[in-house]
Recover the amino acids of this structure.
């Protein structure tokens, strides 16, 4: 906690944040995520001390402390913060072209956003272009969704702040792939294989040529026409790239380039029955669009090797390729788009924007900003090491971005009412509260009806805490009270007593029925009381002592206010 508090204070000019520190601790030691309640106070103390050291002695003093106590942290974080993403190889003297190529079998996920952001950030830095290409030719393995094209267009713009320089749909370029396949067959770069999958597997493992491999280009072209005209059924013939059967990696031995897929595509219907596989289709598109740099996950290294084989045969130069390792976010576990789609169709999740899902639609619904995602991925960079991080890392970025513009409101979970005797103090007729503790976001006013005392609402947990101790609580930004029973108490004074627990509250009359849709806690609907307000739907607010939330529905005519949990 001390290490990352000093580091945070140095990076953010003495304004280190507890959540950022906790996120970095969890990132280094994931096993501590179960000890958040213990780490929180320790981190808060360490952050306060580090910020104080920065304020009293300056940045160089904090830098020296880091150098003395945690030199690795100083070197690593200062370097990352100064450099951002690593230098791009072979980037001088030419126009750079990047691409992001999702499969439209659902909306973008948190994982997809890495590809959008990293490629777009490099394009921005180098004045290059970025291609958004929909790889939608796998109609059986990953059937496209008609709606997903529009979702992805919108999410790309949201994440990057602009439209792509080029937008392509692979399904609209089928004639190009089929023509290129015919050329490759004519040049005997490829051949048509009619072995069964099991038969070819035996020869591939044995590093032996299958009987079809010796076909002449004329014979393969004749078999190709049978694939196109329906003579062959699905699975009875495939186009393979002619490679070296002595390749040490079995995946590179005569790999499949095109196959028969019978079924309906949402955009082109049943017009085609022979479709390219991704490695063939992507190689053709990258060359056609002049892609100079491919940046993607290291799990696609075999794709690079296959495509390089094809490029070499065609006399093309393969793009520079960079890789990143897997990033697992603890709270989301392992989600795939196909699995999410199945779970939605089965009713386990309500839709793609169900707040328990790691989709961009869900994160936007909750109130995460595009900039927080950009900072998150740029900070993680392009390391090929597989890492596991808590969602708190992303939350810390988002919190730092939205805090200053987010108005405060009171929301009480499991509220109870207290009738307070106010005879010992001179009560005002109203209470004026700031909408933000430090920023000028205006005020809200609570009328205080004190004709027969003052009725207030607090959370049941705070009431139980008071009754188990001396009964004294501090109503935030107002007064100390003493709770004398389950429903009664008395006002003590307006000055804050030492060591008194501060609780958020509401004056009776300003409360409104509300529901808080909460993530990761099993129960998604928590009936609550929300402070009356005039904020519009879509407004991000900070709930006192609870966290950030987005107003999804304004209460009206018996409808409760509905808020979607963002993060603490």
């Amino acid at each position: 906690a001390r290490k990352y508090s000093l580091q945070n204070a140095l990076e953010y000019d003495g304004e280190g944040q507890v959540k950022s520190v906790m996120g970095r601790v969890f990132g280094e030691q994931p096993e501590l995520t179960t000890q958040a309640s213990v780490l929180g106070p320790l981190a808060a103390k360490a952050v306060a001390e580090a910020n104080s050291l920065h304020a009293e002695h300056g940045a160089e003093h904090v830098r020296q402390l880091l150098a003395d106590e945690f030199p690795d942290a100083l070197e690593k974080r200062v370097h990352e913060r100064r450099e951002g993403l690593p230098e791009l190889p072979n980037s001088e003297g030419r126009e750079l072209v990047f691409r992001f190529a999702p499969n439209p079998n659902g909306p973008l996920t948190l994982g997809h956003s890495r590809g959008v952001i990293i490629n777009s950030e490099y394009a921005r830095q180098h004045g290059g272009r970025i291609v958004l290409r929909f790889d939608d030719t796998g109609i059986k393995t990953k059937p496209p969704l008609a709606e997903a094209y529009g979702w992805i267009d919108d999410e790309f713009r949201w994440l990057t702040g602009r439209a792509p320089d080029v937008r392509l749909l692979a399904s609209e370029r089928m004639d190009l792939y089929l023509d290129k396949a015919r050329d490759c067959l004519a040049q005997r770069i490829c051949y048509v294989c009619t072995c069964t999958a099991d038969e070819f597997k035996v020869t591939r493992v044995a590093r032996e040529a299958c009987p079809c491999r010796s076909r002449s280009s004329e014979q393969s072209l004749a078999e190709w026409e049978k694939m196109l005209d329906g003579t062959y059924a699905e699975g009875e013939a495939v186009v393979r790239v002619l490679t070296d059967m002595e390749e040490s990696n079995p995946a590179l031995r005569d790999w499949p380039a095109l196959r028969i897929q019978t079924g309906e595509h949402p955009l082109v219907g049943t017009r085609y029955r022979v479709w390219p596989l991704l490695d063939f289709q992507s190689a053709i598109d990258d060359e056609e669009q002049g892609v100079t740099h491919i940046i993607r996950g290291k799990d696609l290294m075999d794709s690079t090797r296959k495509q390089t084989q094809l490029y070499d045969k065609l006399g093309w130069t393969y793009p520079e390729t960079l890789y990143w390792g897997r990033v697992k976010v603890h709270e989301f576990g392992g989600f795939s788009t196909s699995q999410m789609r199945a779970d939605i169709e089965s009713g386990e999740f309500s839709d793609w924007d169900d707040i328990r899902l790691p989709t961009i639609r869900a994160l936007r619904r909750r109130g995460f900003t595009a900039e927080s995602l950009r900072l998150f991925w740029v900070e993680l960079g392009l390391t090929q090491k597989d890492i596991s991080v808590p969602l708190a890392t992303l939350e810390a970025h988002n919190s730092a971005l939205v805090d200053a513009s987010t108005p405060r409101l009171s929301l009480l979970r499991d509220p109870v009412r207290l009738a307070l005797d106010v005879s010992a103090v001179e009560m005002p007729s109203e209470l004026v509260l700031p909408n933000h503790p430090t920023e000028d976001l205006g005020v809200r006013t609570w009328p205080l009806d004190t004709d027969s005392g003052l009725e207030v609402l607090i959370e049941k947990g705070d009431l139980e805490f008071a009754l188990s101790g001396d009964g004294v609580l501090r109503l935030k930004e107002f007064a100390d009270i003493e709770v004398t029973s389950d429903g009664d108490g008395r006002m003590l004074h307006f000055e804050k007593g030492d060591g008194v627990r501060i609780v958020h509250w509401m004056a009776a009359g300003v409360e409104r029925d509300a529901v808080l849709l909460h993530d990761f806690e099993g129960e998604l609907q928590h009936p609550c009381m929300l402070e009356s307000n005039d904020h519009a739907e879509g407004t991000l607010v900070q709930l006192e002592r609870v966290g950030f939330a987005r107003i999804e529905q304004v209460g009206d005519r018996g409808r409760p206010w509905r808020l979607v949990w963002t993060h603490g």
About this structure: The CA atoms of residues 117 and 160 lie 7 Å apart.
